[in-house]
Amino acid sequence: MTPLAARGLRKSYGGTEVVCGVDFAVEAGECYGLLGPNGAGKTTTLKLCLGLIEPDAGAIELLGQPVPRRAREARVQVGVVPQFDNLDPDFSVEENLVVYGRYFGIGAAQMRKRIPALLEFAGLAGRADAKITTLSGGMKRRLTLARALVNEPQVIFMDEPTTGLDPQARHLIWERLRRLTQEGKTLILTTHFMEEAERLCRRLAIMDRGRIIAEGSPRELIAQHIEPQVLEVHGQGYEQWMQRAKTLSPRVERVGDTVYCYGADIDPLLRDIPKDLSYLHRPASLEDVFLKLTGRDLRD
Hints:
The chain has eleven helices and 14 strands. It is α/β, with parallel strands linked by helices. The chain has a domain at about 225-285: Alpha-Beta Plaits. The strands form three sheets. It has a six-stranded mixed beta sheet, with helices on both faces. A four-stranded antiparallel beta sheet has the order 2-1-4-5. Strands 12-13-11-14 form a four-stranded antiparallel beta sheet, covered by helices on one side. β12 (about 250-255) and β13 (about 260-265) form a beta hairpin. α3 (about 95-100) packs across α4. The longest helix is centred in the middle third of the chain and has 16 residues, at about 165-180.
């Protein structure tokens, strides 16, 4: 059974179509990413797949159930990590988990048996009695992840799960998410962190203006859409050097005071850089693909 499939998905608000004929399918046990700039339609797509809003057109099947018609039945086996933490500040860590378990018909006694393992998974062992207001941002995010697992879900939706976290907290959550896929869980992830997508996602789709414009594994997308090597150059006199670079590189871009050169062989460019210019030579990344396909303009 395919855990999640969407076909011809459309949704409009106020005459503006924000999801425009989206098709994708998520395989069991994989982490599937939805990437895109602000307003691309990622969060709306997640809400449609969960049955929280109704599509204008298209078909959705979640864990074998048609959505939204039988979304409630499907969500019994689904966990959700929302974009913003919505923990109850009046309750302790344990009480937040116990109360959430009631939504799935899990009694307090049964839930308390599960709590030690959930807190260990989230790196919160010994914090059961702590008040939410005493937790750091990283702890709250990890508790929100643990809460999404109270019903032992088969599919977990995560909307930007590590936004606002420091590197230590982010890496801990990445390790926990990898553990979930190793246990056979299916993850659907939206993120603005390209490194996160490269590390976690077996496959991903890049969305822009409500449409999926590219899909594949991170390595496949880099190989298909971008030159393998990148040279970033900046400093006094970069404009004059950029004109020479255009004769040596198949693709040159200027962003602010930085010149980006893309190609399979960067050595001729490296030999031509004056000493008063600073540079960074690196392999192409998923972020390069993202910026090439969606543009560098700010989205609000």
